[in-house]
């Protein structure tokens, strides 16, 4: 079979690109290893910057997000026994929306299918061919049958462990990486939110984060050993750790509830440059990873494909490759700023086991500076809402 753009991966990057291309009259086929039910149920990120919301709204898939997402105008930093509010809207005029990634996926899959889009789930043995030529192709197996798509372009939106990035020939890309010596233990809890806004807590026992997924589900995280096992953490042990890190003397209490999911995520910063080789273009986690602090991952995926959709439109409508040639540089500019911000938030808020007493006091002094200085709060807020 033939299409214009073959997209590997039905995450936010792949699905949104397919949707944006469709609106521009460009055909695509999306391949995904997992089932539709699986991708629509896996709970991942949850925060959308205003710019991400704008893209979803402008492209006609924002209706449920506007109705069900929770608009947040600020968040809190907690440290040293006190909580400090960062007023995003007052500082930047912008806000963020807490709307889970799998809900974005549900909305995009529905939009693609309603428009007759070609999404193929549960495919296997995906392989990319001839990406150095103007006639690349993708082979895969679906329902036991070998298939092949000939395309003008292949988009690798298949995540950090996908098959696309390794297709760059040796010496054609540089990888930048930092792996952090801790992970996040994440839980989902049946209960109303403990707080109207997110709370990022720095504590000597380790970082903790109070977030939410819906009016009846809380999302809570705490810093842990990345090699720890979920089985080592009973519900009681989790609650006592969270209470210890989050509660101070101001009477605020963390709400408990039934824990219905537990998981440990590793933390890394990673960038592959360039994000393009020949007719293969990478988007989202296939090209870059941020640690979760600051919630930039899904937003970067969305901004990559906004640039890519524009570049592909210019290619098909005006016959110019300028946008495609500039894709990597344009995307990486934003990626590196988000890498910086995610690294900075991570460093500011986590407990590093090997930090000297001096470094621990410098970390506290930096936090004090951030909450005391309007200029520093503004820089933080601009990065957080993605005001660039
Ligand atoms: C969430 C994750 C983050 O990394 C963050 O900074 C805020 C919220 C979340 O999953 O809810």
From TrEMBL:
Residues 2-341 form the FAD-binding domain. Keywords: FAD, Flavoprotein. The keyword Translocase does not apply. Pfam families: FAD_binding_3. The keyword Ribonucleoprotein does not apply. InterPro entries: FAD-bd, FAD/NAD-bd_sf, RIFMO-like. SUPFAM superfamilies: FAD-linked reductases, C-terminal domain, FAD/NAD(P)-binding domain. PANTHER family: P-HYDROXYBENZOATE HYDROXYLASE, TRK SYSTEM POTASSIUM UPTAKE PROTEIN. This is 4-hydroxybenzoate 3-monooxygenase.
């Amino acid at each position: 079979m033939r299409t214009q753009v073959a997209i590997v991966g039905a995450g936010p990057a792949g699905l949104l690109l397919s949707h944006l291309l469709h609106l521009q009259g460009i055909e695509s086929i999306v391949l995904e290893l997992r089932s539709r039910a699986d991708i629509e149920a896996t709970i991942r990120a949850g925060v959308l910057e205003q710019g991400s919301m704008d893209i979803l709204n402008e492209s006609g898939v924002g209706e449920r997000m506007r109705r069900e997402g929770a608009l947040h105008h600020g968040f809190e930093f907690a440290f040293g026994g006190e909580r400090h509010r960062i007023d995003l809207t007052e500082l930047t005029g912008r806000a963020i929306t807490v709307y889970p990634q799998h809900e974005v996926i549900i909305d995009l899959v529905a939009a693609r299918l309603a428009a007759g889009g070609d999404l193929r789930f549960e495919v296997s043995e995906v392989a990319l061919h001839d990406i150095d030529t103007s006639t690349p192709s993708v082979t895969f197996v679906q329902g036991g049958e070998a298939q092949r798509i000939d395309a003008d372009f292949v988009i690798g939106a298949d995540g950090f462990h996908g098959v696309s990035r390794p297709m760059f020939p040796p010496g054609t890309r540089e990888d930048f990486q930092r792996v952090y010596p801790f992970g996040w233990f994440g839980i989902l809890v049946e209960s109303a939110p403990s707080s109207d806004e997110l709370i990022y807590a720095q504590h000597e026992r380790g970082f903790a984060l109070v977030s939410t997924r819906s009016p009846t589900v809380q999302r809570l995280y705490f810093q842990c050993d990345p090699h720890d096992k979920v089985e080592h953490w009973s519900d009681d042990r989790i609650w006592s750790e969270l209470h210890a890190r989050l509660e101070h003397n101001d009477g605020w209490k963390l709400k408990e509830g039934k824990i219905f999911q537990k998981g440990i995520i590793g933390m890394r910063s990673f960038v592959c440059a360039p994000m393009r080789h020949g007719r293969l273009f990478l988007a989202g986690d296939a090209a870059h990873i941020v640690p979760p602090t600051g919630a930039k991952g899904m937003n970067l995926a969305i901004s990559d494909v906004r640039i890519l959709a524009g570049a592909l439109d210019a290619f098909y409508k005006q016959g110019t490759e300028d946008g495609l040639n500039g894709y990597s540089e344009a995307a990486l500019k934003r990626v590196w700023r988000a890498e910086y911000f995610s690294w900075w938030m991570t460093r500011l808020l986590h407990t590093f086991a090997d930090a000297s007493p001096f470094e621990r006091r410098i970390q506290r002094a930096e936090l004090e500076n951030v909450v005391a200085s309007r200029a520093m709060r503004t820089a933080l807020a601009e990065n957080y809402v993605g005001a660039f």
